[in-house]
Amino acid sequence: MIEVQGLTKDYGSKRAVDNVTFTVQPGRVTGFLGPNGAGKSTTMRMIMGLDTPSSGTATVGGKRLAQHAAPLGVAAALLEAKGVHKSRSARNHLRVIAATHGISTKRVDEVIELTGLGSVARKRVGGFSLGMGQRLGIAAALLGDPQTLILDEPVNGLDPEGVLWVRNLSRHLASEGRTVFLSSHLMSEMAQTAHHLIVIGRGRILADASIEDVLASTEEQVSLVRTDDVEALLRTLAADGVRCTVTAPNTLEVLGLPPREIAAAALEARILIYELTPRSSSLEDAYMELTKAEVEYVSGGIA
Ligand SMILES: Nc1ncnc2c1ncn2[C@@H]1O[C@H](COP(=O)(O)OP(=O)(O)OP(=O)(O)O)[C@@H](O)[C@H]1O
């Protein structure tokens, strides 16, 4: 279990993580979701003891990671791509890490098997694709058979097969009772992998709930409207402060206004609409809603 209490990190005058408190439970995959620059990597580095908090604490299994006698068996992480000797084979790379931590070569072979690196284990790491490199990073993280696994953007740049592999592995490790904490800036990815979500924006926690609860928390209605005069309808609704977006030719997505009121507004403005479809909000909508302030902040160019 990971416990984070009042965790804050300042880089000079920049507050990267702002008084963050949460718990990551074992036996399920917890997604750490937030836009770029939200503070995910910084939080993960502090949990791993690679960055010192300005205030607050982060513990794994009840203690700071460094206080454990054999930290590699407690928690391991895939953070940014680490420096590896490019001329070494994958197996040798893992053997070197194993040797420095008193881990057997039998375990090296197990993690090679587990991460599907068998056919390339003797090849030079320098020639590895991004996907193979990610697998190698995860293999290294698994060497100590850790109870807690922290993966920072593990699917970044992976092909669909690699994405599926990370998803299945994360779920498998959680089903063994491990704590699995993985970050992403993509809700679509998290929705299919995580059981529980912690959403962060500008260093603060915006949501900490099951996938189902995050969905239920967005009450905003979304409707799809088709009309020949999309510009006129956009103007009419926008004049009333309704948020809408043109999503395709002749198609408007309207947020927060019940379908009946959309139809009434169109009728009053004498705009013909020929389709009005209420859409249940998706996790993607929920995420957009949660991180709206963050996105506006960035696109406003203030950051
Ligand atoms: N070493 C550092 N020095 C100064 N500022 C930093 C440092 N590391 C991170 N930051 C800043 O802290 C904020 C949070 O960064 P962080 O990398 O934790 O975000 P993130 O959510 O992981 O984003 P990304 O997905 O882009 O990696 C950003 O504004 C970033 O520029």
From TrEMBL:
PANTHER family: ABC TRANSPORTER, ATP-BINDING PROTEIN. It comes from Zhihengliuella halotolerans. This is ABC-2 type transport system ATP-binding protein. InterPro entries: AAA+_ATPase, ABC_transporter-like_ATP-bd, P-loop_NTPase. Residues 2-227 form the ABC transporter domain. The lineage of its organism: Bacteria, Bacillati, Actinomycetota, Actinomycetes, Micrococcales. It comes from the Bacteria. Keywords: ATP-binding, Nucleotide-binding, Transport. Belongs to the ABC transporter superfamily. GO terms for molecular function: ATP binding; ATP hydrolysis activity. Coiled coil: none annotated.
